[in-house]
Each structure stands twice: as structure tokens, then as C-alpha cells.
Design goal:
The protein has helices spanning 32-42, 63-70, 86-94, 104-108, 111-120, 159-169, 190-199, 213-221, 232-235, 241-250; strands at 5-13, 16-21, 24-30, 46-51, 77-80, 99-102, 125-133, 144-148, 153-158, 173-178, 204-207, 227-230. By secondary structure, it is an alpha/beta fold. The protein has a single domain (5-250), classed as Aldolase class I (TIM Barrel, Alpha-Beta Barrel). The chain has an 8-stranded parallel barrel with strand order 1-4-5-6-7-10-11-12, surrounded by 7 helices.
């Protein structure tokens, strides 16, 4: 059995570590480089960096911040935000990232997934999905809709179908971020995560809603996720990575222990 992963997300706005609730009321809360170093030293499995306003502001990613974070961590490091072309992806990989996260641009131009997969390998390409629950319709039969541009633009696109299409185009991994659960610390959206995990054969990272160790256990077992992404509870020092992993280990979830 493969180990389940605990991943932290650094949402970066104007070079600062930021956090929001349901993609609104965003606050600057610190320095992303300091946070990256601390989480790496505490035993984090993987780090995800999002430039959260790059797409909505129609600009490129903050490559200097990517480089500074990469210099501090020696674990898998994934970067997203404002990546529109294979050349954009290449720039962040050369800056020290191991993986690229594509989101808005992939919805607008799905061939970006296949082009990046051919250029760098599927293991390097992560399809990030921002998802909101809606009333089911013929266009969105699952009741889960893809939203792009930092939660600003609903696409009328069914999330389950998009996940399957993304896998077919060459994505090696999915980040499934529930907008409804984001920043609430009330638990992950288990139905959404489980439905997508059952629909694809590539790893699924659950994002949005992690507030206590029990939530990670739930999404890694009942939600069938391969990894749980956490942000607020680490940023606000409510739990340590060690506490999260020890809870999972005690309850029989295989995780990497480095102490």
C-alpha cells in the first residue's frame, strides 16, 4: 500500500502568504518562504504553491517567489497560477518546481494538459480543479461545477467529467478543491472527493476544509483521497504536521514518519 500524503498549500498574493474563506475575504498572513522552510523541517510530504491572483489579473506567476521557496525545501514542490503555455510551465520547473499545476488555462485550452504532459511527463502535470456544488442540470449531472479565475467564473462544466477528461489528456494527478469547504475548517467535501477518486485511476488530492486531524482521516479513508491538503490549521499553528501524521498513524493510515 502506498503511503498517504500530507500536503500544505501556500496561497500567495503579491508575494505574501494569504488565506481566504470560500475564496473571499482574503488576508495576508505571513511570508511564504518562512512557512515553506518550517513545514519542510517539520516533516511535510509535499508543498503546493499557488499564485492566487495571477489568472484573474492576467499576468504571469511570481517567479522570484517560486525560486525563493524552492531554495528552502527538498520535498516535491508543485506550482500553479497564471500558467498558460508550456513555456510558462518550463519557467517554473527551471525555477525549482518538480510539478506544474494547471487550472484556469487548462479549462480554456485543454490541449495545454496534453502538451505539458508530452513535454515533461504525466507525473509532472497536476490538474487543479476549483469546484462548487450546484443544482444538478443536464449539463452538470453530478451537481458539481468547475469554476475558474480564482472562483470568479462558473463554466457550466461538470467536475466529474472534467476530471476524467483531464486524466485522458495526460494529467498525472488531480487537486480537487471544494470552494464551499475552502477555509471553513469544517471538514473536506467527502462526496465530491470520493466521486472523483472512483471515476479516475490517477492520484487525487483533497483540498478545502481540513480543520482537525479527524478530517484528514475521513478524507483519506471514506473520501478515498490519496493525499490531504491542509493550509489554515498549519498557517495559524493550530496543529503541527507531526500531530496530524501521528493521529493518522494511530488510526491505521500508512504515512511517512521521519522522526
Amino acid at each position: 500500500m502506498l503511503s498517504k500524503r500530507v500536503i500544505s498549500c501556500l496561497d500567495v498574493r503579491d508575494g505574501n502568504l494569504a488565506k481566504s474563506v470560500k475564496f473571499v475575504d482574503t488576508k495576508d498572513i505571513g511570508d511564504p518562504v518562512d512557512a515553506a522552510r518550517r513545514y519542510y523541517e517539520e516533516g511535510l510530504d509535499e508543498l503546493v504553491f499557488y499564485d492566487i491572483t495571477a489568472s484573474s489579473e492576467n499576468r504571469g506567476i511570481l517567479i522570484d517567489v517560486v525560486s525563493r521557496v524552492a531554495s528552502q525545501v527538498f520535498i516535491p514542490f508543485s506550482v500553479g497560477g497564471g500558467l498558460r503555455t508550456v513555456e510558462d510551465c518550463s519557467r517554473v520547473l527551471l525555477a525549482g518546481a518538480e510539478k506544474v499545476n494547471v487550472n484556469t488555462a487548462a479549462v480554456q485550452n485543454p490541449q495545454l494538459i496534453s502538451e505539458a504532459s508530452r513535454a515533461f511527463g504525466a507525473q509532472c502535470v497536476v490538474l487543479s480543479m476549483d469546484v462548487r456544488a450546484v443544482e444538478p442540470t443536464p449539463e452538470i449531472p453530478s451537481g458539481y461545477e468547475i469554476v475558474i479565475r480564482g472562483g470568479r467564473t462558473p463554466m457550466g462544466l461538470d467536475a466529474i467529467e472534467w476530471a476524467k477528461r483531464g486524466e485522458g489528456l495526460g494529467a498525472g494527478e488531480l487537486v480537487v478543491n471544494s470552494i464551499d469547504a475552502d477555509g471553513t475548517k469544517e471538514g473536506y467535501e467527502l462526496t465530491l472527493t470520493r466521486t472523483i477518486a472512483d471515476a479516475v485511476s490517477i492520484p487525487v488530492i483533497a483540498s478545502g476544509g481540513g480543520g482537525k486531524p479527524e478530517h484528514l482521516y475521513d478524507v483519506l479513508t471514506e473520501g478515498r483521497a490519496d493525499a490531504a491538503l491542509v493550509a489554515s490549521i498549519l498557517h495559524y499553528e493550530e496543529y503541527t504536521i507531526r500531530e496530524l501524521k501521528e493521529h493518522l498513524h494511530r488510526r491505521g493510515v500508512k504515512v511517512r514518519i521521519s522522526w
